[in-house]
Amino acid sequence: MSVRSGIGYDSHRLAGGRPLVLGGVEVPGAVRGPVGHSDADVLTHAVIDALLGAAGLGDIGLHFPDTDERWRDADSIGLLREVRGFLHGQGWTVLHVDSTVICERPKLGPHRESMRGALSDAIGIRPLDVNVKFTTNEGMGFIGRDEGVAALASATVERA
Ligand code: MG
Q1: Taking ligand 1, which is a single-atom ion, which protein residues have CB atoms under 5 Å away?
Q2: Domain interval for residue 123
Q3: N or C: which terminus of the chain carries fewer CB neighbours within 10 A?
Q4: pLDDT on residue 38
């Protein structure tokens, strides 16, 4: 049995008039959202990179290049479902995902279970095997100034 882990990181600029989608959940009441080619869901993008990293399958830009019009305004949860298929095709089973969203506002805690539900459903594992954590940057740097949002993730996979 081969067990591997992978890491993922993503960040996007925030701008007014964009929905704040994190882990497949649109956060109500957010006045700013991330700018990007897809829906710019930094949490889902970090999870995708952690899974691809664990399986040795490159990164999100390799599979879904932002120069490709197919991925404009793409639903990132749909991309995560595709990644699940890539891993299964190579014989990998996902054991666990952990993640952290770094965002100054709004408070995200009330949406944790919805994000775990959406991510775990796309990956095909139990919600309790997908952890989502939140922190701020204590007012420092681009996140502290509300100019952007970032996310980190790790994933563990196994193959017989
Ligand atoms: Mg991204």
Answers
A1: 10, 45
A2: 2-159
A3: N
A4: 77
Distance from the alpha carbon of residue 25 to the mean position of ligand 1, in angstroms? 15
Q: What is the 3-state secondary structure (H, E, C) of the chain?
A: CEEEEEEEEEEEEEEECCCCEECCEECCCCCEEECCCCCCCHHHHHHHHHHHHHHCCCCHHHHCCCCCHHHCCCCHHHHHHHHHHHHHHCCCEEEEEEEEEECCCCCCHHHHHHHHHHHHHHHCCCHHHEEEEEECCCCCHHHHCCCEEEEEEEEEEEEC
CATH code, 68: 3.30.1330.50
Which pLDDT tens digit goes with each residue over 18-73? 899 999 999 998 888 888 877 899 999 999 999 999 999 999 999 998 887 777 77
Calculate how far, in angstroms, residue 60's C-alpha sits from the geometric centre of ligand 1: 8
Alpha carbon of 160 to ligand 1 centroid (Å): 31
CA 159 / ligand 1 centre spacing (Å) = 27
Residue bearing tokens 């509300």: 146
What is the whole-number distance in angstroms between the Cα of residue 44 and the centre of ligand 1?
A: 8
| Number of domains within the chain | 1
Tokens of 5: 């882990």
